[in-house]
Design brief:
Length: 277
């Protein structure tokens, strides 16, 4: 039986997704705010987040909600929801059909439930800690890949922190030399979901936000994979530098990336707790 918290996240994600689809053919007329270079928010992002917040608050009024667009509401440390109403806004605004709603619930600081919903394909990825991961109610597992030879991995340019580009390019070059190919699709939550269901063998990205990775990271873990900071620590949500892969592939990926880490990337893992997220 699905946990009530997860059921709520699923219902909220579907409502947000319905709104996204409703306006996708009218994106040319939607007001858009440029938050930073390469980072946008549309009226649909805000309306979608408002719809999701309303559903969560209706069910759990005492819970805290942190969304990409509207920030934080509530003061509970026990239950905290993380929302990315449209992960892949740039894709959405350009008519590229690759974006998702991402919702996760942290209970006492640990991600316990997560949903990534792709409204274009009507694909719902869901997970509760200890209960496995599903795609449209069917169990999924990470790939059985154990080396970079033959692997297809995903990555993304650190557009929020472009000063990291030299290190990123060095990582990319090393990875590209060893694997079959690298994908860059523009939606972190879906990259992680695709690792969880074996469509991708691995994934790494720099300078992400917690709402980008919380739900997708839990999906990977519950599908039998590993998620960590690229420097090897457990605080991938705090550092924003994420590496995800099946257990046997995580070490080859780390070996390709590790020589190119900056000192600041290494430093951000210092003091990380031993508890797995």
């Amino acid at each position: 039986m699905t946990h009530p918290f997860l059921n709520t996240a699923i219902e909220a994600a579907h409502k947000g997704g319905d709104l996204i689809i409703k306006y996708r053919d009218r994106v040319d007329s939607i007001p858009v705010e440029r938050k930073a270079r390469g980072d946008y928010a549309s009226e649909v992002d805000r309306a979608c987040e408002e719809t999701i917040r309303a559903e969560l608050k209706r069910r759990y009024p005492a819970h805290t909600i942190i969304g990409e667009e509207a920030g934080k509401s509530g003061d509970s440390d026990e239950n905290v929801w993380l929302i990315d109403p449209i992960d892949g806004t740039s894709n959405y605004l350009r008519g590229i059909p690759h974006y998702a709603v991402s919702i996760a619930l942290l209970v006492r600081g640990r991600v316990e439930h997560g949903v990534v919903y792709d409204p274009v394909r009507d694909e719902l990825f869901a997970a509760s800690r200890g209960q496995g991961a599903t795609l449209n109610n069917r169990r999924v597992r990470v790939s059985g890949r154990n080396s970079l030879s033959g692997a297809i991995v995903a990555a993304a340019f650190p557009f929020r922190q472009r000063r990291l580009m030299p290190a990123y390019f060095a990582m990319f070059n090393e990875m590209f030399e060893q694997c079959d190919d690298v994908r860059r699709a523009g939606a972190a939550s879906l990259d992680l979901a695709y690792v969880a269901c074996g469509r991708l063998d691995g994934y790494w990205e720099l300078a992400l936000k917690p709402w980008d990775t919380a739900a997708g990271g839990l999906l990977v873990q519950e599908a039998g994979g590993v998620v960590m900071d690229i420097a090897g620590g457990d605080n991938w949500m705090e550092s924003g530098h994420v590496l995800a892969a099946p257990f046997k592939l995580i070490t080859p990926m780390r070996r390709a990336i590790e020589p190119h880490l900056t000192e600041s990337m290494r430093a951000r893992t210092v003091g990380a707790g031993s508890e797995k997220r």
